[in-house]
Structures are given as C-alpha cells and as structure tokens.
UniProtKB/TrEMBL annotation:
PANTHER family: GLUTATHIONE S-TRANSFERASE OMEGA, PTHR43968. It comes from Rhodosorus marinus. GO terms for cellular component: cytoplasm. SUPFAM superfamilies: GST C-terminal domain-like (SSF47616), Thioredoxin-like (SSF52833). Transmembrane segments: none annotated. This is Glutathione transferase. Gene3D superfamilies: 1.20.1050.10, Glutaredoxin. Residues 111-217 form the GST C-terminal domain.
C-alpha cells in the first residue's frame, strides 16, 4: 500500500511538484498536496506505475494557466495526451482505470454488480461527505451551519458502513475505486474529527474501522 502520509502528500517526500518519468509521459495530473480529491487520482497513477506527470498548478491556483485547463479553478485537473483537459476526480479516475485497464491493479471489481456497488460508494461519499468536508476546516457563518455539515458527513459515513464489506476491501476481493475514493479523504476524518470535534469516523462503524486498519498498512 502507498503510505497514508504519502497518499495525501504531506510526508515531505512529495511536497515539491512531482514529475515522474518526464520523458514520453502520457498526460499530466495537476494537483495540490493537501487535496483529497487529487490524492485519489495520484494513488491510481502511482499504484499502476503510469508514465504521467504530476505537478502543481503553473503560477498557482486560479492563475490564467490553471484556469485554462480547469475552468472552476480547482484541482485535480488532468490533461490527456491528445491535449484535452478534464476536471472532476471521479471522471479522471474512471478515465485512468479504463484507459489503463491492462495495467494492474484494475481497481474494478469482478462483476457488474460489484462494479456498480463500488461506484455507488464513491458517489455516496462525494455527494454526502466530500461536498460537506469544508465543515471540518472552513470558516462558517454559524456553529449550527458547521454542525449541519458534520451531520451530513456522519450520515454519509453511516451509509458507507452499511455497504462496506470489509473483505478487507470496500467491495469484492481486490482494491477498487471505492477504496481509493474513501481512503484519500479519510486523512481529513482521522486527523480533524477527533482533534476538533471530539469524534472518530470509526466510532460505531466496525466495518470501516477494520477496512481502515488494512488500508493504512
Ligand atoms: N468535485 C470535485 C471537487 C474538487 C475540489 O473541491 N477540489 C478542491 C481541493 S480538494 C479545490 O480545488 N478547492 C479550491 C476551490 O474550490 O477554489 C472533484 O471531485 O474533483
């Protein structure tokens, strides 16, 4: 497994823009080390050993150069070898998994049913937890607003707990997009929730707790 600290890019090893195999690279991932949405794409690139450049936005976030490839001024952004660029981490993950399906690990479970389940977990995570993650670290208009955001994260985690197989993976017998999507964000949960809000994302969620032990190894 890629180490937890290194996954989210805070280990120091990858604090500077990383360029892997810069000769003949097949695209560029634009990321930031603290970005969980970027970390999931980077995880797939590193685990598959893909020949893809990984770099921070040229001249910083929302610079003209960055906006030219990422119209919302966000990371991650991916420039394909045909010159097109794409945004949205799940779309980038899907592209990498599909385009490099012959390079292990596949990141897709064996059956259509399990693949659908893995995708569902990703979406539950993003639409309930990911979209509300600012409640953990952003300035909010009121404590009630913050609590409402945290409650939505809790609900999303409860649903993921329901579907998590802890086999030890989220779904099926192998690492999949569901593991990658949730694990990349769990850095926030594990560091911020106990410190600032007095709860742990594993409390009362034994399957996620077991899954996390395995993923963190
Ligand atoms: N739905 C997007 C979310 C991307 C996102 O929120 N990225 C954050 C970093 S983790 C960002 O760029 N924030 C800066 C901003 O929104 O201005 C995805 O999955 O890629």
């Amino acid at each position: 497994m890629i180490g937890f600290q290194n996954l989210i890019g805070i280990s120091g090893v990858r604090r500077k823009p990383a360029v892997m195999n810069s000769e003949d690279s097949c695209g560029t991932l634009t990321w930031l080390p603290v970005s969980n949405f970027s970390a999931r794409c980077r995880y797939i690139i590193l685990k598959k050993g893909l020949n893809i450049k990984i770099e921070e936005p040229i001249n910083g976030m929302k610079s003209p150069e960055h906006l030219a490839i990422s119209p919302l001024g966000q990371v991650p952004c991916f420039q394909m070898d045909n010159g097109d660029s794409m945004i949205e981490s799940m779309a980038i993950m899907d592209y990498l998994v599909d385009r490099y399906s012959d390079v292990p690990p596949r990141f897709l479970p064996a059956t259509p049913e399990l693949r659908a389940k893995a995708r569902m977990i990703c979406q539950v995570h993003d639409l309930h937890c990911g979209i509300n993650q600012g409640a953990m670290y952003r300035a909010m208009t009121s404590p009630e607003d913050r609590e409402a955001g945290l409650e939505k994260i809790r609900k999303g985690l409860d649903v993921i707990e329901l579907y998590c197989e802890a086999s030890p993976f989220m779904v099926g017998d192998d690492l999949s997009i569901a593991d990658v999507a949730v694990f990349a964000s769990s850095a926030f949960y594990v560091f911020m929730l106990p410190r600032f809000f007095g709860w742990d994302f594993r409390d009362g969620r034994p399957k996620l707790a077991k899954w996390f032990v395995y993923m963190r190894q």
